[in-house]
Input
Amino acid sequence: MELINARLKKVQIECLDFAAIIEKYDSPNTLFYLDPPYVDVESYYDAPGVKFRRADHEALAGRLKNVKGKFVLSYYEHPLVRELYANYRIITKDSVKHSAGTTRNRKSNVKPKSIELLITNY
Output
């Protein structure tokens, strides 16, 4: 437990717009973990006064091109994501959409499957 506490002492968790976070913390020693709303289901994340649309995905990709630090970005498989991050390392993983509702089949409740992407600049 002490090792975990020591490792997390410098970790900063914030809930701000990605541009503000990157501007505030970007340095060669920073590792950003970004989990934006997934493409084509952005409305699931809408809160009063908060919207995230295609232009925001494009702005995020543009901002990450110039980041000084390292980043890990999570998305589900989507052609736009593949287009925006074609020049980065992309790790894929078969996944279950835990936030999605279940669909009935004869034997059990089944959640939809997807491919999860972890995109990095290192």
Summary: The chain has a mean pLDDT of 86. The chain has four helices and six strands. The helical segments are 2-8, 18-25, 54-65, 79-84. The CA atoms of residues 14 and 36 lie 13 Å apart.
